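ESCALATION

Customer reports they have been waiting on this structure for their group meeting. Please prioritize. Original submission:
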Amino acid sequence: MSSINSLLNALSERTIAQRVGIPHDEARMQYALRSNTVSSWDEFCEAITDYYQYHYCRCVAHGGRLSRDEAAARAKDLIDRAEKRHQRDIVTAYRDAHDGLNMGLRGVLDQLADGMKAEAIDLYVKEEFDKHRIKTIDFSTGIETDRYYTKVKLIDMVGFIEGLRKSKKQI
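Update from on-call: job pushed to the front of the queue and completed.
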């Protein structure tokens, strides 16, 4: 069961924060804005593209870059998806950045940072499940078999163990 413990450790809130969350948060904190508002759609697109490229280079590609068009498309898509959760769209985000509403451009860049961080956490979790292939056990002999638990079963096992841990803390 050491592999399941290794998986649980890799998926703990602290480990995810240290490996993924904190670097994304620090990248956001260190990005300086020249202004919290934009004067045009083109300036808005330039600002979100620049930020996306900066964040991507720092946290995702570790020095690698996207083409300007790719960074712009990804930034717009991420903002649009974030805005749709509030029955808004990217044009509303532009208006906020233009008028300084809802934290202005800073708020829009926060959405980008949060979206990129969420994507990175999702990919990290998926990769940890893929890395931790755990063999099944023949319960009659107690010996590992040549078969591996499915990802769905591992998710179930992690949930069960985490539930046990939480219930023991409450007692």
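Sent to customer with the following note: Helices lie at 2-10, 13-30, 41-60, 68-84, 90-99, 104-131, 151-170.
Escalation resolved.
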